[in-house]
Write a structure and sequence with these properties.
The structure is a homodimer. Chain A is built from 14 helices and 19 strands. The first copy, chain A, is an alpha/beta fold. The first copy, chain A, folds into two domains: about 140 residues, Roll (Urease, subunit C, domain 1), CATH 2.30.40; about 325 residues, TIM Barrel, CATH 3.20.20.140. The two termini of chain A are about 30 Å apart. In chain A, about 60% of the residues are buried. At the A-B interface, helix 3, helix 12 and helix 14 of A face helix 3, helix 12 and helix 14 of B. Chains A, B: Keywords: Hydrolase, Metal-binding, Zinc. Chains A, B: Its cofactor is Zn(2+).
């Protein structure tokens, strides 16, 4: 049965880094293939009642609030789902001590009754029950914040990782699911690591099979091969994971050059490779399907290698600031021709909101300018931040041309944004973002970016399916 | 009639820069003098029903949610009330062009029918009606975010400034109200400046008189003498404003060293003074009652002058990042012994939330460290950020010992914070901050600081009066 829906209202998107495209009209979305693709767009439609006759169909019409607009769903190119309970908990730590102090204990508790988090447990721990609560919660948070596609790191546990796949699939979020690989004994705690390369590969294959059983097409949920980062994996594991990704045609995600001590550690652990990027390249992990998170401290030579290999970068400004990792020079990465998207990096990042990542990308770019005598050419503005969050992210997750806009043939992965309207007496809706009525639409978008939150996300669709609605 | 109220529950405060004080118990607040002061505190009370008998009184008991706590109200030491509609609207501008492009047009529209903002008006503009809407809205926002005391800049207009005083007074927020002084012709637009020193002084006196008519004690609302910043005032105006503040015993607020081009401009306009700080000192404006906003680029010599004169500094990290002003070295200011509080600096800052200022103070301090080879001694952590927002702010606004804590004799200027509780299935309350139940209270506070917003502010009191409650 053909299922069609018309969406009418204001449509805003960021098709180019310095362009906000603001249109009113209607689009016809066809769900008969179960995928929710935009069949037609008509920017001459001026009323919801005319939309159906313009398209020559009978279909329900979904209307965006006049004070709001449709916007492409956000793409979170780097998020650790199991770490959600730790958002904001990092003290004054930096990457390597943060991992051992906060992160490994929490991650292990989603699959291991012997996790340090259970040392004072009064009743027998149920790690999978914890995983269920955490994963349902983080997906509620990301959907509520307009994230329609996320590239998740899970934990090393097959069961809990498969549960994350089940939950994203059931709730309709587009997701890459990564079982985390870490098996280098001296770099991983005894309570939280794969026992050997063989186990790493076998467990990864089990997760791959599970994702395929849910969605053979890999369009809504797909496994992503996930060596945590170079130091955490045995060299032969890195190599075999690269081979596995190639055989299976899967994407790869890992971390690179987040923190200077980490860069030093990689140099010590891999003395034969010339750089951090070279370590990944040497082990067959630097591919056009690879997402590298952070890239704060890459040399120019490494940038050129990443560019030559067509690997992608996930910029996580919130996390880089919170953990004191450094100021990622996004402008330089873009100028090198590298494809960049945004990541929340929960819980190195303290927020599951990609809108927050847009804000922090703008702020960090200003701070990068401070390192260059206040040079404004490093600035990322609102439109460019939104472009990174949508079109940039689409390229990073391999969905360029299918996500990030409202053109015909694109998937209906969309959020409806509502802004608050202030009345003449100063009363107003209980929404973030106060609109007084005289602001241009460009300025309303700026106000949304700088002040908006999940209260402004009224409805969210993935592949035409309504997956979130505010109460 | 004596009016007493007991507050029972968890009380958290930051009495020292590196100390979170977490107590349960009860306090008795006496409002018979109309001021709402803590008469007694008892940290041995363990149930709400025992509280009254412990104090030997009959009084209603207000109980904080078990998942939450009482926290001292925030003090916003620098906020421009009329600029609230422009939050998030700054593009890629920096201070001086931001003022002329965005700020002067908006501010002028609150009192001047010839404001550029009305050039396309179809009906006759009503500036005071606009002021009423804007001021009611910004006070709703600050109260909802737990700001119990604010030091406001208004506009140059006496009527609109007095209206701001009326509204804060009626709604019960503790406020300093500054009529903005700017009369140097070549530095101010024709449509938005006082005509002469005489007019500046006369209009300021009119606002002083109005504030006194509302509150002769100056405890809830008081005028604060407000030369916008050195470049905007004639030199004799600066001098006369300093004299007026001294005669009237009033506080002073202005801006200092926010942006490098501004610093250069001050040097050009005041060639006989050795520094920006010296300009204020020379004109009698550097006093123990002076609040200097920003102080991003002070020399060591200027810091010592500020310290010697016991003037205070309002640190506005959000604004400094948004407008690309620079990274304020808060640690150096504190090490010099200068008293520092936090400001939102709406709308250079894009948020009316002091909790956001706490977050940004932490982040900016990390970035300052990046300028010093990643030195962690520059770090401001959660407890210190909260201390700046409460105890630090109390010193800056001259209320040390009366605001910022729960000791006997302190004013009941308090916010009740509620955190979200996640259920075992991952469902949870529609509140920011997900508490899973295993977190320590220190970590819950960290989660609140990094993820909280106005939804977590359940109730707000000023001087014992309930001035905000979430629906």
């Amino acid at each position: 049965m053909v299922e069609e829906t018309i969406y009418f209202g204001r449509f805003i998107s960021a098709p180019q880094p310095d362009e906000l495209l603001i249109r009113t009209g209607a689009v016809l979305v066809n769900r008969n293939d179960g995928k929710g693709v935009i069949k037609k767009a008509d920017w001459t439609v001026t009323s919801s009642s005319d939309a159906a006759s313009k398209f020559g169909v009978e279909a329900p019409v979904v209307v965006a609030k006049d004070s709001g607009f449709f916007f492409p769903g956000f793409i979170d190119t780097h998020i650790h789902a199991p770490q959600h309970p730790n958002v904001g908990i990092f003290g004054k730590s930096t990457l390597l001590d943060w991992l051992t102090t906060y992160t490994f204990p929490l991650e292990s508790s989603l699959g291991n009754v012997n996790s340090p988090m259970y040392k004072d447990a009064v009743s027998p721990p149920d790690p999978l029950a914890r995983a269920k609560a955490v994963y349902n919660r983080v997906i509620s948070r990301t959907l509520a914040n307009g994230t329609t596609t996320a590239s998740y790191y899970a934990t090393i546990h097959v069961d809990a990782t498969n549960l994350l796949a089940d939950i994203t699939f059931a709730r309709g979020q587009r997701a890459y699911i990564g079982r985390v690989c870490m098996d280098r004994p001296e770099m991983c705690p005894d309570y939280y690591r794969d026992e050997s390369t063989e186990q790493t590969i076998a467990n990864t294959k089990a997760s791959i099979a599970h994702c395929k059983s849910l969605d053979a097409s890999g369009e809504l949920v797909a496994h992503i091969v996930t060596p945590r980062f170079a130091p955490s994996c045995l060299p032969q594991t890195l190599t075999q994971l690269g081979e596995l990704a190639k055989e299976e045609g899967l994407r790869i995600q890992t971390h690179i050059s987040e923190n200077l001590n980490e860069v030093k550690l990689v140099k010590e652990l891999f003395p034969d490779q010339s750089s951090y990027a070279d370590v990944y390249d040497h082990h067959g992990l630097l591919t056009p399907k690879t997402i590298l998170a952070h890239a704060v401290h890459l040399s120019k030579e490494e940038m050129r290698l990443v560019k030559a290999k067509k690997s992608k970068i996930s910029h996580c400004p919130n996390s880089n600031s919170a953990l004191g990792s450094g100021l990622c020079p996004v402008r330089e990465l873009l100028d090198e021709g590298i494809e960049v998207g945004l990541g929340t990096d929960v819980s190195g990042g303290y927020s599951a909101s990609i809108l927050d990542a847009v804000r922090n990308a703008c702020i960090v770019s200003r701070h990068v300018g401070f390192l260059h005598d206040g040079d404004s050419r490093y600035n990322v503005g609102v439109a460019e931040g939104l472009w990174l969050a949508t079109m940039g992210g689409a390229k990073v997750v391999g969905m360029e041309g299918r996500l990030g806009g409202f053109e015909e043939g694109m998937l209906w992965d969309v959020q409806e944004i509502a802004l608050g309207e202030v009345e003449s007496d100063g009363q107003g809706e209980d929404l973030e973002v106060d609109i007084f009525g005289w602001e241009s639409w460009e300025n309303r978008v700026a106000k949304w970016v700088w002040n908006g939150d999940d209260r402004n996300v009224r409805r969210v669709w993935v592949g035409g399916r309504l997956v979130h609605e505010t109460r």
